[in-house]
Amino acid sequence: MKFDTPAGTNPIDQLKVVGRPTPRIDGPRKTTGTAPYAYERHDVAENQAYGFILGSAIAKGRINHIDLSEAQAAPGVLAIVTHENAGKLGKGSKNTAKLLAGPTVDHYHQAVAIVVAETFEQARTAANLIRVDYARVKGRFDLAEEAKHAPLEGDGSGEGSSAPPVDRVGKFESAFAKAPVTLDQTYTTPDESHVMMEPHASIAAWDGDKVTVWTSNQMIAWGKEDMAKTLGIPKENVRFDSPYVGGGFGGKLFLRADALMAALGARAAGRPVKVALTRPMSVNNTTHRPATIQRVRLGAGRDGKLTAIAHESTSGDLPGGGPETAVAQTKLLYAAPNRMTSMRLAVLDLPEGNAMRAPGEAPGLMVLEMAMDEMAEKLGMDPVEFRIVNDTQVDPEDPKRPFSQRHLVECLRTGADRFGWSRRNAKPGQVREGRWLVGMGMAAGFRNNINQKSAARVGIDAKGVVTVATDMTDIGTGSYTIIAQTAAETMGVPLDKVIVLLGDSNFPVSAGSGGQWGGNSSTAGVYAACMKLREAVATKLGFNSADAVFEDGKVRAGNRSASLKEAAGLSAEEAMDYGDLAEKYQQSTFAGHFVEVAVEAYTGEIRIRRMLAVCDAGRILNPISARSQVIGAMTMGAGAALMEELAVDKRFGFFVNHDLAAYEVPVHADIPHQEVVFLDYPDDKTSPMKAKGVGELGLCGVGAAIANAIYNATGVRVRDYPITLDKHLEKLPAVA
Length: 736
Fold this sequence. Notes:
Number of helices: 16
Strand content: 25-35%
Number of strands: 32
Oligomer: single chain
Distance between the termini: 69 Å
Helix content: 10-25%
Radius of gyration: 27 Å
Strand order of the largest sheet: 4-6-2-13-10-11-12
């Protein structure tokens, strides 16, 4: 099915099932411990052995020699695989560095070997007996230092894309120089880790020249393709299966070492092998959100209208990697006739920088929205009104291209009203409650809506049960439920008459989970398959498909009806593909974030008191799961603002705080009352579902809202995230 014209009225618009607050259908399995996560799938292959990966002890250099003699003689050892006996390996198209080191080492904790043994303890003990002689070479680990000579991304002098190195509209420099009010500030965001609850884990088993990998992965088709490419075998010889994923946040988008090394270990041992990365390995072996250095310049008239806006960002990655696209939202969020954005990419020898929930916009808005707050203060304007004055209904870089929908102003006004923004004291450091300094802050949220081709297969059995199969994944987002709701709505059956099968590469290829495209795209694919099945059912039962109504498990037209059971055995497979509507209309999601904080006047301790997000994200398919996504994202935003930071050892090139004891994330005591409001305006330009993504929007802007609230409470502006108490303690207002 091709979606190339705005959606008209369709079966989803009945909203008998879709749009209803529906508990997750996979909830009982998760809460009873019966949902099969990758490492726990003891029943999928007999006689499973255990693998333990040894990571590189250096960040850059070469392996001179590997002595395996002690490890091979250790009790229970079945096989050891290194680059010397792994056979010829390729590199996945979505991997920046190869997953198995040797003889060169690209980053710290890059896999050097896997030991396969009868027990986990035997594999771990033997891995520690491997002796590796390295030749360490000097690496580049300091972003601030390397940023001094980092090339513009896309200018041909670096390892980046072929995109233009600088995006310009109008004449920024002259407009900025003439502006009556200006801002020019530099901000930093740190390296961050996904630290999802479930570590990267896989079980691999070979059957002749074919391998099955039961794994934890967000994008099944990507993983399958890159596994085949890395092993040098046909794609059809690889099967990935990932029905449940215990969190990913972008860290499980790609093929990683757990899956590859499990496959190599299983081939060498002649037995199925299970592998889970230790927490330190997850942090240094896989990917992370890269640190940024960002400069924002704003110029405005006395009336508050922006005349010039520039946003420049520098980040780092391994050779062949890409930048953190922190300027993405600045191209679209506010009107200004003169604009400039650019990115620089420094080559670093740290572990791979890549996607983490809302890549680009998350760190970009932490900066842009703090700069907007500072500019509002310079202008003497309310921060909400300053943003409203600079709203736009068209793409600022291409005014002929309108937004499909844009209700940012309503998000801001609704949020201000519900939060009690009028009670905010605009002068910082003025509101006290005992020993606490109290402040309010806000920020706009923005995340693009992306549509991806997605397919599904839908069938009917003799009991009238509808079964949906697609390789879509559920990473805790509620995919099972909204897919079931879509099938129930379209086929006219109760929710308990739908079975959803996910995460198997033998199923039709879906959009997968990433970029907040999964919900809208995967349900649109299911809708397409259901509509094709409806035609087949109508034909078999003797109805005109245009007149047939599907409801209550029956098909009817006029005075005649038939049970859906009578169409048992029929199935249909279809994909939803997209035309050029996304080129004609800018498709984005918006939010207004509001936060109240209290800062202890003596110690500088920061406590969040209230959080509100008002979201404009098209039709909300399931308010319960959508709210869960947003409050989870708000919580992640609190972590980014106040505590999350990977500490870089700039001598040896690794992240020091590589476990949950030292990498701090919010806990229950850190998170107060959270309120979420959905405007719920169906967008007919996005898909027949008229929905958009929401899972990442909830994060975008939250960090800046917290930062702005802290400034309002204390009068101390901290421009280097995270805002830990040591960064403002000495500048706090004097305690009376």
